[in-house]
DNA sequence: GTTTCCCGAG
DNA sequence: CTCGGGAAAC
C-alpha cells in the first residue's frame, strides 16, 4: 500500500481545528502526528476527528504540550506510558503501531536557553526516547520517530546559522546528540531525499513577517529505520497551512512510503 | 427626511465587529449608539466604520464600559466631557448633535446589587444625566436619550416580575427614578408606540437558553422629547443579531422618525 | 457564557 | 505574535 505519514505541531488544537480539519481532508494522511495540542484530555475535540474518519489517540495536560496520533486504520498497538519519568512527566510522548509500522510521536522540549535546566531536560528527553526505542526495537524494523524534535541538525536547517549558532534549537550539544541518535540506525528522511534543500518547518510568530522573509528553522522531522527509508517515495514540507489565516507557527512535514516494498527481516 | 436611530450594547466592539458591520449594512441607521465597546481609544476599530460609511465618535477605557456614536452625516456638535465627575469618571457618556437632533448616548452602570455602592453610583448617574440635559436643553427641542439605561421600568419589562422584584435593574428605587426622569418631558418611545408588548433587549448569557425561553429584560431605551415622539413612525427591537453566532447579550433597538414633520419652537 | 486583561510559554 | 488559563465583571 501507499502510506502517507505526517507530523504537525498545531500550537493549540482547539485554535487550529478548522485549519487542521481542512488540511486533513486535502492531504488524507494515513497517520498524522500532532504536537502542542495544549489541552487537557477532557477538552480534546475527539468527535471532530472521528467524523473526519480518523481513529485518535491523545495525551494532553493543562495549558502546555500534549500530543495526539490520528490514524485511518485502527491502531494495532498503543504506548501511552514508558515508565520513564523523563518521557512520561509531561504529555510529550505517544507511540502507535499502525499498518505494521511503529510510529513514535514526540514533542521534544524546546529548552529555553542553554543555561536553563530545561535544556538539560531536552537533552535527557532525546536520550531517553532513543534508549526506549533501542530497548524495544531493532534498526531493521519499520519504525518512524517523528514530531517536533526541536533541533535543527545542520547549518542549512536555520535561516542564519552564524547568528543562531549556540541558540537553543541550534546548539552544538543538541546537534551532536541528534547525529549520535541517527547513528543507531535512523535516517533523517527529509534531508536524505533532499540533501541540498533549505526548507523550514517553523517560523517564529515574534519575528515580523518571518514567513515572507523565510526566517525559519527545520525542527520537525521524520527519522526512519532503513527499511522505511528504502520504502520512502517522498518527503516534503507542506507550506500551505502556514500561509493561511490563523496559522500555527509550524507547518506539516509529509512523507509517502510504499509499504509493499518493505523488506522486513522478521516474519510478522 | 426619514431618519433611523439605533442603540446597541455590543459587549466588546472587537469581538462583535463582524456581526456589527453586517448589521449596519442591513439596517443602515443614520445614527447608531453603541455601549460597552470595552476597549481603549487606541484599540477602537475606527477604519472599519469609516469604510462602512460612518463618522465615528468614541470614548473608551481599559477593559470595561466605553461608548461610541456612528453617524452617516458628520456630527454638528459633540460633547465628550460634561465636567461632572459622575458622568465623566468612566467612559459611559457621549452626546452628539446630528441631523438637527441631540443624541445622548449613555451606558448606565449596572449597579451590581442594591446594597453595593455601585447602585448608588447608578442612581447618581441617572440623576446627573437628567440634570445635565435639563441644564442644557428644554423639553421642546428634538432630543434623544438612548443607550443601555439598565432599568426595566415596568413589570412587563422583565421575564418574571415577581421573582425579579428588588433585583438590580428592576428595583423600585430605579424604576421610580426612571419615571421621575420621564416627567421632565421624555417619552419612553418603545412603550409609547407599543403599550402592551412584552419585548426585551437583553438576555443573560448565564441563563441556559435564555433567548429561546425568552428570559429577558427591556433595559435599552429611546427616551425622546415631545417633538421627536410626534415625529416617530416606528420603534422596534431587532432580534436577529441576538440569534446569530457569537452574539452580544443585548440586541439593538431601532426607531424611525420623520424629521420633516418636526415642529421645533426655536428657529435653528 | 462571554469578553477583556494579564500572565507564562514559545 | 499567539495560545491557554485564571480573574473580574456582567
UniProtKB/TrEMBL annotation, chains A, B:
Record site feature (Transition state stabilizer), residues: 150
Protein's organism: Desulfacinum hydrothermale DSM 13146
Cofactor comment: Probably binds two magnesium or manganese ions per subunit.
Keywords (A to Z) from UniProt: Hydrolase, Magnesium, Manganese, Metal-binding
Cofactor: Mg(2+); Mn(2+)
UniProt-listed GO biological process terms: DNA repair
UniProt keyword annotation of rRNA processing present: no
GO MF: double-stranded DNA 3'-5' DNA exonuclease activity; metal ion binding
Binding site for Mg(2+): 9, 36, 148, 150, 249-250
Keyword Manganese among UniProt keywords: yes
Record-annotated Endonuclease/exonuclease/phosphatase domain positions: 6-250
InterPro entries linked to this entry: AP_endonuc_1, Endo/exonu/phosph_ase_sf, Endo/exonuclease/phosphatase, ExoIII-like
Taxonomic classification: Bacteria, Pseudomonadati, Thermodesulfobacteriota, Syntrophobacteria, Syntrophobacterales
Similarity section: Belongs to the DNA repair enzymes AP/ExoA family.
NCBIfam families: exoDNase_III, xth
Pfam family, one: Exo_endo_phos
Site (Important for catalytic activity): 220
Residues at the site labelled Interaction with DNA substrate: 250
Superkingdom: Bacteria
Protein name: Exodeoxyribonuclease III
Catalytic residues, chain numbering: 107, 148 (proton donor/acceptor), 250 (proton acceptor)
